[in-house]
Structures are given as C-alpha cells and as structure tokens.
Design goal:
Helix content: over 70%
Radius of gyration: 26 Å
Number of domains: 1
Number of strands: 0
Shape: elongated
Strand content: under 5%
Largest sheet: none
Number of helices: 11
Length: 243
C-alpha cells in the first residue's frame, strides 16, 4: 500500500470514528428533549396554551357540524326545523329526490366560521414561531456548547423538532378533547338529547383525528424556521451571546 493510500485510509477511519462519536441515538435525543421541556415547563405551557385554544375552536366547529349532520340524517321533521331555527342554511322541507343522508353529507360550517378557524390557526402558528425564536435566543449558549462538543446540525434540528412534536401532540389532543366536549354540551343545550342520540361515533373520531393532526402539523410547521436558525448557528457566535 502506498503512502498516499495509507493516509487516505487513516483519514477515512478517523472520519468514521468522528461520525460515530457525534451521531447520538434517537432515544438519547428524545431524553434530552424531554429534559429541556421540563426545565422550560412554564414557557412550554404558554406555547401549548395557544395551540390548545386554536385546536379547541377547530374541534368545536367540526363537532357542531357532526351534531347537525346526525340530526339531519335522522329524517325527523322537528329536528330539521330545529336546525333551521338554529341558523343552519337548510330549506324547511327536503328538496325533492334528495335523501337526508346525501343532504347531511353536504352540511358543513358556514363561510364565516371557516374564516374564523383559518385565522385562529394562522395566529396560533405565528405565536408558535415567535415563541420558538425566543427559545432559540435563550438557548444560544446551550446550542454553542453542544456544537463545541461535536453535535451536528441535524442533531440540533432533531431536538427542536422533537420538542415541538411532543408539545404539539399533547396540546392538540387536549384542545381536541376540549372542543368536542364543549361542542357536545352546546348541542345538548340547543337540541336536547337527540344531539347525542343521532351523533355518529365515526364522525366524532374523525373530528378528533383531524384536530390532533392539524394541531401537531401546525406545531411542527411553526418550529421549522427557528430550528433551522439554531442548526445553522456557528459555535463561536452562540458562545458569545450574553446570558
């Protein structure tokens, strides 16, 4: 083996050893993320609270639509009249040739409600981005220390995504449950026990799933830019930051 080949082999071996040293397993990343959330518990709760409110409102609107669809599928004229009196855009009598099942499938939230939901979710996303940027600022020295110890950019990125993912799942689940409960209570007050009797469990599960998925997705979306900023930060710049 020539001297050049030997040097190349040694360099390759060193690079492989360095890669093995700085790439931590997923379990360790998860452990560090959980500890970081515990240390910054109250700030995490502020971020989660905005997500809970936005997801709860989304879940509330979807649950209201599910209750109305269940009442409409029942085919009872008095329940249909109750929906019309509650403000749903329905004719007092079903259109000729249109079954209650088909009409219920087209029932959805009003355009006003949809715009309010979209705006609340956008405001929530902006709040998450702002909170995560502040978290990055507070953790300059921590990020710099990890990078000086050999942490790669993808490891820093993974930490922030894991933290946001866990917060998003918890906040979205709490918000979805809260919205469904309030939606059911409002339905019971407005339409009586028929609101629960005609409600489809599958529709309710779909509402929960959609709300949790939207909340978790918004949490991850809101942390992408702050996580990228933290990952690209040079160690010397991070260590210079004032506490």
């Amino acid at each position: 083996m020539s001297q050049a080949e030997g040097a190349s082999s040694n360099q390759t071996g060193k690079s492989a050893r360095i890669a093995r040293q700085v790439v931590l397993p997923f379990g360790k990343s998860l452990e560090i993320s959980i500890k970081s959330i515990k240390v910054r518990f109250f700030r995490s709760m502020i971020t989660v609270a905005s997500l809970v409110l936005a997801v709860a409102f989304l879940s509330f609107i979807l649950t209201g639509a599910d209750v109305a669809a269940g009442l409409l599928r029942s085919g009872e004229p008095r329940l249909r009249l109750a929906l019309v009196e509650a403000g749903y855009d329905l004719p007092s009598l079903p259109p000729p040739g249109v079954a209650a099942q088909d009409e219920a499938g087209k029932l959805s939230a009003s355009p006003k409600e949809r715009w309010i939901v979209i705006l609340s979710l956008l405001v929530c996303t902006v709040g998450i981005v702002n909170a995560q940027l502040m978290a990055v600022t507070e953790r300059f020295r921590e990020i710099g220390t990890m990078k000086c110890l050999g942490a790669l950019d993808r490891f820093i990125l993974r930490l922030f995504l894991l933290e946001a993912g866990m917060q998003g799942l918890v906040g979205a689940f709490i918000g979805a449950i809260l919205g469904v409960v309030v939606g059911l209570l409002v339905g019971l007050v407005r339409f009586g026990l028929a609101a629960a009797a005609h409600l489809s469990p599958l529709d309710l599960l779909a509402t929960l799933g959609i709300s949790v998925a939207v909340g978790a997705g918004l949490s991850l979306l809101g942390v992408v830019y702050p996580a990228a900023v933290a990952a690209r930060m040079r160690p010397i710049e991070a260590m210079r930051a004032q506490e």
